[in-house]
Amino acid sequence: MTTPTPSPASPASADTASLAVDMRSIVKAWPGVVANDHVNFEVRRGEIHALVGENGAGKTTLMNILYGLIRRDAGDIFVNGKLAHIQGPRDAIALGIGMVHQHFMLIPVLTVGENIVLGREPTTAGDIYDAARVRQEIGELSRRYGLTLNPDDKMGDLPVGLQQRAEIVKVLYRGAEILIMDEPTGVLTPQETTELFHVLRGLRAGGKTIIFISHKLKEVLDISDRITVMRRGKVVGHLITATTTEQEIARLMVGRDVLLRVDKAPANPGPVALAVEGLTAASDSNVPALRGVSFEVRQGEILGIAGVEGNGQSELIEVLAGTRKASSGRVLLGGKEITNLSARAIRSRGISHIPEDRRGAGLVLNYSVADNLVLGRQRSARFAWNGFVLMLNAILAWAKRLIAEFDIRTPTPETRARALSGGNQQKIIVAREMASEPLVLLASQPTRGVDIGAIEFIHRRIVAQRDHGVAVLLVSAELDEIRSLSDRIAVMYEGRIVSFEAAETPEERLGLLMTGGGRADAAASKVAG
Amino acid sequence: MATPSAPTTERTASADTPTPLSRVIAYLRPMGTPLGSVLFAFVVGAIVVVATRGNALLAYESLACGGFGIFCQNGENTALQLSNTLVFTTPLILTGLAVAVAFRAGLFNIGAEGQLVMGAIAAAVVGIKLGTWPALILLPSVLIAGTLAGAAYGGLAGVLKAVTGAHEVVTTIMLNYVALWASRYLIIGGPLQAPGAFNASPPVAAGAQLPRLVPLNNNLLFGLPQSVFTAYTGIFVSLFGAAIYFFIMRRTALGYEITAVGQSQRAARYAGISVRRTIVVTMLISGAFAGLAGAVVLSGLSHSLVDTYFQDTTGFDAIAVSLLGQNTAIGVVLAAILFGALHAGGQVMEADAQISHNLVFVLEALVLFSLAANFLRTFKFRLPAFGRSPTQPAELEAQDVVVGAADEPG
C-alpha cells in the first residue's frame, strides 16, 4: 500500500487510541514562509516512524512544535488520544515525549551518570548527591534496553556513539515513552549506526514509540515501520516501509524523478597532477593524525578517499590546502614541491578546495553571494586594481555569471549567503572553486547536508571537472558517494591508506577495510596508482 | 538543471518584489536599532531626572540648546553652541573610526585613549622641536607624527595578539595607563615641561597649529567676540578620515579581508587570508585614527601637551560612537555629532536646568547598555506580527531566506 497522497485529518475514532502522537492541521509561519502548512502527522504507539524530507521541508519545525520548543500558529496535538497543551519542553517531557538532538546536550567534564540525572539528581537526606542510587537506576535502564553504559565514565572521554547512547538513556530516565531522534546517524560510523538501530529495535520491543528524522533513505528503509514525507512545509506522502522503494521516497521528497546514480564515462587519466609521499601530520589535539600517507592523483581522474570520519581525512585535506602543517613527507603539484606552503600560495598554484565545513570554513555567511564568490581571489588582478582597490562592477558581473552557470538560487547577488539554503550555499563554494580553473580540486564532503536536487547537480559538476582534465581528490563519509563518483578508491584507516581499490569494489569490502579489517589481502588487490 | 527543485526559489519570490514602501523600510531598517537605543536612553534618562526631582523637559531643552543652539531659554548664542559641539565632535569621529575598524575585524580596541595620548605626544614633540620648519611642511608633519605614533601604539597590541595571543582588551587597557603616565611624566619634571609651567609643555609653533574656523581676534561675530568660537579646521581632517575609512572598508581588498576575518577567521584562513597579518594591519589602522585624533586636538585646540588626559573620555566615548554608528563611516560621523552635542549641551544644562552634566554620561551609558544588551531586537520581531513567538531556531535555513533578503537594502 503505497499512497503518496496526504491523508485527510483523521476523525476521532477507535483508531485514535492507538496513536501515540496525532498532530492535526499544524500551521507554523515565519515572516514570509510557511514552515508547516496544515500538517497532519500520526505516529502509532510502538512503531518506528520515519519523518523524511529535504532541508527546510519543515520536519525539524514540526518536531520542535511537538517538543514545545516552538509555538504553533494553529492546529491541535493529541498525545495518546488526549488533547495536549504543550507550552514548552517541560510540558512535553511531562507527557512522556523526549528528544535526542542532533547536537548532543552533554557536559563533557561530568560523568555519564551525572549527565543522565542532570536536573533531577537523586539525593540522600541532607541534599547529598546519591551516586549509588544513580548507578543502580541507570544500570536498571541499561539492562532493560540493552544500552550498555558505565555511569562512572567521564562523558568527554567517550566516542560519539556512546555519547548518543547516554543521551538516549537520559531521555528514558526522564520517563519518555515517545522518543524523537533528530538525524541521529549523521555523526555515527557505519558500525555505530548498526548498534544504534539494534538499540532502537530493542526500545520498540519494549513498547517505546520512536520518531526518526532523517534524509538518508537507506537507513529509513532499514529501520522504520512507516514513513511520512514532507516537502516545502507540507506532508506529501504516507508510506509503509515494507512496500516502498528508495526511488519513490526520493521522488516524493524532491517532487520529481531523481537520478540517484551518477552517469559518467570511463576516466581518461593523464599524467600525475598531485603526488603525496609519506605525509605525516598531527591533529588539533597534537596526536598523530597522518602516519605516512602516499598516493597520486592523475589529471582527469577522481580518487575517492573512503574512511570512517576521524581517520585523518580532514587533516589530509587541510595539509594539502595549506591550512595545516605537515610534520614530514612531501606534496608535489605537477612535480614541484608545495609542502607546507601557505594557503594563499597553494591556491595561487592551482589547487582549489571545497572544505567540509561549509558554513564555518567555506563561506563568510554575512557576506553577500557576490562577495563570497570572490573569497580568496579578492586581490587577483581580475577583481582588484593593483591588488588593492576592488572593482565592484567586475565582481558583480562575475557573480551574475556564476549564479547563472551554477544555478545558485538567490534573490539577488547582494543577498547574504546566510539567507540561502544549504544546497545553494554549497553551490556558491562549488562555483567559486571550480570557476578558478584549478589543476587539482580537493572536494571534502561536497554534498553533506545538501538536498537531493543539489547533490545531483554537484556530482555532475565534479564529473565535468574530471572530464575537463582536473585531478579530483574526493573525501566523503558517504560510501555511496565515493563509489559512484570515484575512478579509484583509497581506503583510509587510522592515518594511513590501507588499500587502493577499484571503483566497483563491493560496499561490504570497503566497510571492512574502513574499520581496520581485511588488511591481510589488501596488498593483493592493490590497484596500481 | 532547468527544473526548479530547490525550495528557495518559490519562497523568496514574495520577498523579491519590492514595493516603494518596503524599499524605504529596507533602507531605514539598519537605523532602527541605533535610533531605538537613543530613544530608550532619553526615556530612561527622563525617568532618572524626574526621580531626582528635576524637570526633564527643561533638562532636554537645555541639552538641545547647548548641543544645537535650539530651544534656548536664556538667550544662549546658537553659533557658539554649534561651535562647541564641533569641538567635541572632531576627535570623536576619529576615535570612533578607530574603534569601528577594530570591531570590523572582531577586535575590541579599548585603547583608543592611549593611542590618542601617544598621538598627542608625538604631535607635541614635532610641533615644538621642529618649530622652525615652514608651516606647509610642519603642520602635515605634526599630523603624520601623531598618526604614526598612534598606529605604532595600536599595532603593538595587534602584534601581541597575533604573536602571543594576548587579548587586545587586556593589552590595550594596560597600554592606556602607560600612555597616560608617560604624558604626565613628560610634562611634570620631564623633558617636555615648559619653563615656569607646572604641568604643561610649551605650545607648538604657530606653523604647527590647525587654523581656527574664524580668526582669533575680538571682532564681533554673531554678537560675540570671535575669540570665543573655538571650532577649528580639525573637523575637516576628521571628515577626511571618515572618507578614508569608507574607502578602505567598502572599496579595497584590505577592507574585504578585515571584515572577513571579523566574520569568520576560519573562512578567512581557508581562503588564504593571513589572519595574523590582518589583525596587525587592523590595529595599525585603528591606532592611526586614534593617534590622528590626539594630534588634531593638540594642533587645533590645546596647542600644548597639558595634563588633562586622565579626565579625558574621548577614547572611551569612541566605543559608544562606533557601536551607535554600527561601524559605518556615516554612522560614526552622525553618532559623533550626537555625542559631541550631548557633551557640549551638558554644560548649558547644568547652568540652565541645574542638573548635573553627568546626566550626559548616564545617557551615553544607557545607549551603550541598550545596544549591548540588544533587547530592542525583541520588539523588532514582535511588532510586524502580533502575538507571534519571537523564537527563531537557528538551524532552519528556510525561514532565513526571507528575513535575510529583506535585510538587504535596495
Overall mean pLDDT of chain A stands at 87
Class inferred from helices and paired strands of chain A = alpha/beta
* CATH topology name of the largest domain in chain A: Rossmann fold
Query: Which band does the percent of strand residues of chain B land in?
Result: under 5%
**Portion in beta strands of chain A:** 25-35%
Assembly status = heterodimer
Termini gap of chain B: 29 Å
Shape of chain B: globular
**Span of the ends, CA to CA of chain A:** 49 Å
CATH class (first level) name of the largest domain in chain A: Alpha Beta
| C-alpha geometry of chain A | globular
**Strand order in the largest sheet of chain B:** 1-2
Structural class of chain B: mainly alpha
Tally of strands of chain A: 25
Largest interface pair:
A-B, 77 and 54 residues
Number of domains of chain A: 3
Which residues of chain B form runs of ≥5 with pLDDT under 50?
1-16, 380-410
- Supply the number of helical segments of chain A: 17
Helix content of chain B: 55-70%
List the total number of helices of chain B: 16
Structural commentary:
The complex is a heterodimer of chains A (529) and B (410). Chain A is of the alpha/beta class and 529 residues long. Chain A contains 17 helices and 25 strands. In chain A, a hairpin with a 2-residue loop joins strand 12 and strand 13. Mean pLDDT of chain A is 87; it is low at 1-14 and 520-529. Helices cover 67% and strands 1% of the residues of chain B.
Mind sketching the topology for me?
The complex is a heterodimer of chains A (529) and B (410).
Chain A: E1 2-3, E2 19-30, E3 33-44, E4 48-52, H1 59-66, E5 74-79, E6 82-83, H2 89-94, E7 97-100, H3 112-117, E8 123-124, E9 128-129, H4 131-145, H5 160-173, E10 178-182, H6 190-205, E11 209-214, H7 217-223, E12 226-231, E13 234-240, H8 246-254, E14 272-282, E15 288-298, E16 302-306, H9 313-321, E17 328-333, E18 336-337, H10 343-348, E19 351-354, H11 358-362, H12 369-373, E20 384-385, E21 389-390, H13 392-405, H14 422-435, E22 440-444, H15 452-467, E23 471-475, H16 479-485, E24 488-493, E25 496-502, H17 507-514
Parallel strand pairs in A: 4-11, 4-12, 7-10, 10-11, 16-23, 16-24, 19-22, 22-23
Antiparallel strand pairs in A: 1-13, 2-3, 2-5, 5-6, 8-9, 12-13, 14-15, 14-17, 17-18, 20-21, 24-25
Helix pairs in contact in A: 14-15
Chain B: H1 8-13, H2 20-51, H3 56-68, H4 78-104, H5 112-129, H6 135-164, H7 168-187, E1 220-221, E2 224-225, H8 234-251, H9 253-263, H10 265-270, H11 275-302, H12 314-324, H13 329-352, H14 359-373, H15 376-382, H16 398-407
Antiparallel strand pairs in B: 1-2
Helix pairs in contact in B: 2-3, 2-14, 3-4, 3-13, 4-8, 4-11, 4-12, 4-13, 5-6, 5-7, 5-11, 5-12, 6-7, 6-11, 8-9, 8-11, 8-13, 9-11, 12-13, 12-14, 13-14
